[in-house]
Amino acid sequence: MKMEMMGGIKMVAFIKNIGFPRFMMSLLLVVILVTAIFVGIPIGMVMTDLIQRVGMYGIIVLAMVPSIQSGTGPNFAVTIGIVLGLLAATTAIEFELVGTTAFIFAILMALPLSVIVGILYGKLLNACKGAEMTIATYTGFSIVQLMCIGWIILPFTSDIMRWPIGRGLKTTFTLEETFKHVLDNFLKFNIGNVEIPTGLLLFFFLACFLVYSFTQSKMGTAIQLGGMNNKFAVASGVNIDRGRIIANVISTYLGAVGIIVYSQSFGFIQLYTAPLMMAFPAVAAVLIGGATASRAKVSHVIIGVILFQGVLTSSMPVLNEIIPFGSVAEISRMVIQNGIILYALTKVDGGH
Amino acid sequence: MLLQKWMEDIKMADITKDRKKRSLKSVLTKNVVTLIFIFLTVAGIALSNLPVFYLASEMLTRITRNTFLVLSLIIPITAGIGLNFGIIVGAMAGQIALIIALYFGWTGLGGLLLACVVATPIAIFFGYLTGVLFNNTKGQEMIAGLIVGFFANGIYQFLLLIVVGGIIPVKKVPMIKPDGVGLRNTIALDTNFGEVGLKYAFDDVFKVNLFHFMMIVGAVIIIYSLIRLIFRNKFQNVTNQKSKITYIIYTVLGAILIGFAYIILTASTGSFLFSGTDSSAIQSLNMLQTIQVPIFTLFLIFLIAVFNIVIMKTKLGQDFKSIGLSQHIARVSGINVDRTRIIAVIMSTVLAAWGQIIFLQNVGTMNTYGSHMQVGLFAVAAILIGGATVKNANIGHGILGIILFHAVFIVSPTAGKELFGDAQLGEFFRAFVVYGVIGVSLALHAWKNRKGLEDLGQ
Lengths: 352, 458
Known about the structure:
By secondary structure, chain A is mainly alpha-helical.
């Protein structure tokens, strides 16, 4: 009896320690994988999918870390970075670059764009402290719509991207002839029937390492200090506003790199309104990994993206097997993703 | 004696004008969003070259369609919750009620009223849950309202795509998908088992010619103003007593309205007023004469407007206001803040449910999985364009906002085509403006708040 109670208390403490979302999603992932084995879904295929999608989505999720640490909350406007990344990628194609050159050019070109736009965006957030998340969401939305106009009127000439007749770029176009899978195919190997896209994973972990090193640096620590406790940071002479701007520049740039990596892995570039809702899964993923709206670590990104993408990729074949009608997988994605964000919002200290 | 009073009145008017002039800059910055939209509307109308008939009938439809939904935002703003993006949840309740109504074959005015009755408990339940959520996310209600819309949409889809037919057995009615599980993507409201359906069930109750309606409105304004002018002494204890000039202006405006309507109605080639104009202009005027106003729908909107005013005079309304000013002070003075906030959200959600029913009976087809998604966005954008802020909104803001918002909405594709040779550009532009308006308004508000706090600090 006593032992059981002890066990119960330990259990509660354990869940509290790793966080409710993380615990629930791990449980869900285990349940789904076990069901998958029973239903007879090839696990190798699911694992291949999962690993690729971790690499694909990882860097966009990583973009949440600097902004959360600086105190501006999850970067709901990561879509700004995403459209800049798309702009850099389309420019690379416009210059008729292919393969690794195109990829590297896109990543380098995204940097100055992100710095300029990120500074402006950071200044906006500094002007309206306290309502960052809502404002970020709508800023992100409006920038995506503004760039919709851009995709039509920008003077691109590449035949790969333009509509054969009419104006502007296609909504979706293939990267087959340009830089599809430049990372995925780098040192790719198989374990059994599981494919490991080495380059993609290396790139993701390199990005994680760079962000981690930054958070450990003097500037990174100062930014975290400013995000955690305004008064203490001011007392110790930290320039909070500057820190918030730098963090959002980094976050914007990670969003830009993230979409370039995503596109090369996906094999297509999607323009126009495709990036509109991309911030929300990324926010949900970092929260699942154990982050809150005011605290995040690189480890949260890795855990979160594995759990979230794991549940999404493995649940799709399983759910479709069990419930053959309707798009159950898509519905469960919506409920999980937004449920997790709502849960995190209830934990935000309004500061009132 | 009378003259002296007149002079005094004019002097007073001059003084207020002076005061206004001095704060011209503050007026401009306060209404920057509205002013930009007035500019966009005028420019858009000028560029698009749309026929007046199309513009007028389209505007009228959209105003009667959307006003109810927009007015459902006012109570939560007064109660300090901010812009309730969560009215999407109310719209879902309205749609569920409509689906129930169609399923059981309810038709006509009675059927639609019954749908409203069915929608109410559903909306109260949804509103309660949203309210509890808002109490747990104080300070972040707006983003929470946005996300709760997405979240609820997942559950809504689960309900209508899988539970209906999958778990609850249903009869094979046209709106159910051929395989018997889930609802179709679009559901027509106009035919229901071969009978007249729910389409226009409110709009068709009683219709009046637009210009007759304008004359009636003009007459009402004149009578009202004259009463206020003649029996001026009896109203002395009324707090919102305006100057005589205001009522005289009202009277003149009423007369102009009647005159304008009369001129349009009598427009014909024979009339001496139009002797110079060519016949195509007369023809378009004759088309204008056919526009009908759905009086019953307008009456519903009028009721909701009155409701919004009356509730603010009750104890509950005062509680809303004090919570809106300061939750802390409200709590100290014995108001149950959390409970009152939940009531505000419930009211907003119920109104949104009814608003969505009014909206859809006019549109005539329901996009089962999409009709509700834009409701929050458009309503919020409209009220902000009308000059509302996160903390302050009234019926005037709502109505002005709807007029400006939908004017831009109607003209922007054509304006885009005229300006850039591409209608798509206009559509992207208006989507940009919708999101941008919300972002800019919220940012301006937060910025002012912060500046105010800093000023206080100094």
